[in-house]
Amino acid sequence: MLQAEEIYKSYKMGATKVTVLKGVNLTVEKGEFVAIIGASGSGKSTFLHILGALDRPDKGIVRFEGRDLNDFSAGEINGFRNKLVGFVFQFYHLLDELSVLENVYLPTMVSKDVVGWLACRKWAKNRAKELLAQLGLSERANHKPYQLSGGERQRVAIGRALMNEPELLLADEPTGNLDSATGNGILDTLEKLNKAGQTIVMVTHNDMIAKRAGRIIKLVDGKITAAF
Ligand SMILES: Nc1ncnc2c1ncn2[C@@H]1O[C@H](COP(=O)(O)OP(=O)(O)O)[C@@H](O)[C@H]1O
Ligand SMILES: [Mg+2]
To answer: Which domains occur in the chain, in start order?
Structure first.
């Protein structure tokens, strides 16, 4: 499904250039649950952002279903980010002015013009409600995110990421801000989604968390090494 070939990325910090990724390769097959581990600062988020086209590599190619992302038009890249990939972040990034339900269907709303939204609004609200039910959050649909616990907020964020039925779910330290029991609940959710066929790439600095994935790769000194 997704292939990263010889990915390089560096950042300029004043006069110094820090090379974070030095030729990273990764192939993700449909249906896999891959964890990327590595120390803080090893480039995990940088790599995940490149996989999801939130950032571009300096060198190297990312292919989605065989097609080089560089060959995607601007519209296609937007579609890729919004429909083919779902993102989950450590700090949830929910909008506090919106209800839980509205946060979940937001990705569908923003991908449509007014007419398109009016045409699919009913469907979108129903799908968002179904996702909330699946995530055990039906009772929270009309709450605001700030009224929820950390684990509940992350489940809302997972619902939002799944709204457009993405081919690929990318999760950056999804349990990083949660206590271990709550974090395990989030991992249970991810595991269940994967069993139902969802392809997942998750980044974590925690070996125990990574062990919940089907395959683990490790980033060290800008390259992939054997995990354990
Ligand atoms: N936008 C940026 N500008 C400059 N340096 C950055 C930027 N983003 C990340 N870095 C640096 O790149 C390195 C890797 O960062 P990151 O990918 O966030 O690592 P990780 O997610 O593994 O903790 C770090 O040293 C970080 O400071
Ligand atoms: Mg990170």
So the answer is: 2-225 (3.40.50.300)
